[in-house]
Amino acid sequence: MTAIPIQPAPIACTLSPEDFKRRSQWLRELADRALLHHRTDGASVTLVYRPSALDEIEELVRRERSCCAFLDFALERTDQKVVLTITAPPEAGDDARLLFAHLVPTEAGRAST
Questions:
Q1: Cα(105)–Cα(32) distance, rounded to whole angstroms?
Q2: CA 51 → CA 25, 76, 85, 92, distances in Å?
Q3: How would DSSP label each residue in 30-70?
Q4: What is the pLDDT along the chain (113 residues), one digit of tens a residue?
Q5: Helix (DSSP H) and strand (DSSP E) numbers for the chain
C-alpha cells in the first residue's frame, strides 16, 4: 500500500476581493464595538473581546475557518472576556502579521500589548 501524503491547506484566503472588503469592514466594526486589546506574537494574534460579543466572535471563527482553513483558532471565554487566539502555520514565516492585518485595529489609540 502506498501512503498518500496529506497536503496542508494553502496559505491563501478564498474570499473574492469584494467579499474580503466586506469582511474586513465587519471585523473593523466588531473591533470598534467589542475589542478590549490585542497582541501579536510571531505567528499568533490574541484578540480579547467583551463577553457580550461571544456570539459575534463565534461567527467570526466560523467565517474565517471557511475562507482561511490554514489558520488555527482557539477560543476561550470567561465572565469577563472572550479570548480568541489565531495561529498561522510555521511556513507563513514573517508574513503572519500580514495575515492578521484585517483582524486588528489600525487606529493609533487602540490598545495593543
A1: 8
A2: 21, 10, 15, 30
A3: HHHHHEEEEEEETTEEEEEE-GGGHHHHHHHHHHHHHH-TT
A4: 566 655 555 566 777 889 888 988 999 999 999 999 999 888 999 999 999 999 999 999 999 898 888 899 999 999 999 999 999 988 887 777 887 888 877 653 344 44
A5: 3, 4
CATH architecture label of 17-103: 2-Layer Sandwich (3.30)
Q: Residue 79 has what pLDDT?
A: 93
DSSP, collapsed to helix, strand or coil, labels residue 4 as coil
pTM beyond 0.85: the answer is no
List all residues 6 or more positions away from 98 whose beta carbon is below 8 Å from its beta carbon.
none
6 DSSP assignment: P
Report CA-CA distances (Å) from 112 to 60, 76, 77, 100: 20, 19, 20, 14
